[in-house]
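Two proteins follow. First one:
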Amino acid sequence: MSAAYWLDLRDYRPAEVAAGLGKPIFVVQGGRDYQVTVADDLAIWKAGLVGRPDVTIRVYDADNHLFTPGTGRSTPAEYEPVQHMDPEVVADIAGWLS
């Protein structure tokens, strides 16, 4: 990525932007995601959206970054085989949208 991309991204605060939208928000998180973690990244979203009754946050403990379920620590090799997204995530997104 170019330097301009990283410089633009440096000051971007997505949770703050989302909080200002005034729209219902559905945040989904894989519990086994090592790229966007529950402990670090989801905590920022929770803090940024606190007090918003129109925000739903769901963590899928068995899912990785791609919302495919597994066990143990997730690794890049887990992304290699063709897989289907966790049906629970699909159903929850569809239910939230309707």
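Second one, unrelated to the first:
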Amino acid sequence: MIRRMERWIDTHCHLDEFAAHGGMAYADTERQRAAHAGVAHCVLPAVELANLEAVRAMAQRHGDSYALGIHPLYTPQAGDNDLQALAAAVEQHQHDPRLVAIGEIGLDFFVPGLDPARQQLFYRAQLQLARRFGLPVILHVRRSADQLLRALRELPVRGGIAHAFNGSLQQAQAFIGLGFKLGFGGAVTYERALQLRRLAAELPLEALVLETDAPDIPPHWLYVTAAERAAGHPPARNSPAELPRIAAVVAALRGISEADLAAATRANACQALPRLAALLAKC
């Protein structure tokens, strides 16, 4: 029996990093692998001013979509004029149908040494940018959900996606109440991730979207232990081609078919990022 491939949407994939580390042919191969696995579309978020054009060009090259923004981990090296340059880039490409969001933006209170005030400055400025151009946002959420929510209540935007969500039920409900979908990826495949798997199973289906964050957040079957790394094993690199297998885990947790999950998360992605609908009609 031939298994029918579903048309999955990877709502968070850093495909440009494959090109940066292995050349364009490497990125093309990974995207083709994903397509053969049933991934119909990838959303490619920028992380700094230096890769804005790279993600835009990559999206055009593969028929995908992109977001423009400055990631909180890149705020230390960001220049004082980078926000103005980002605004100029968004204005330049505001009518590009493949520009679907402002992102990846947010706050990170897990990585040591980051200036919270500078992160907040960039985060709030980019919320203002999203408001100015009527775009949703793709949020980086790491030990920062409450602070992100506080700013969103002060500076409401057109919803978006809380990427790699791993907060509490109450925080999940708060994001949902503000019009956000929650991104689930490789982390949900680990059996020890009890709270995350509970959320994936019990949250309303209309709140979920799927993602890989490739080449980051590898699923458990790609994980390389510390001992293996010490022995010289290369670190794991996630791929958008892993999305269907990640989705199978989520479907099993919810007790629904993969076809139903694909249809629901596809519709949810279009609600979170409204410009996707026209693009998906062509893929």
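SUMMARY FIELD: The chain has one domain: 8-280. The radius of gyration is 18 Å.
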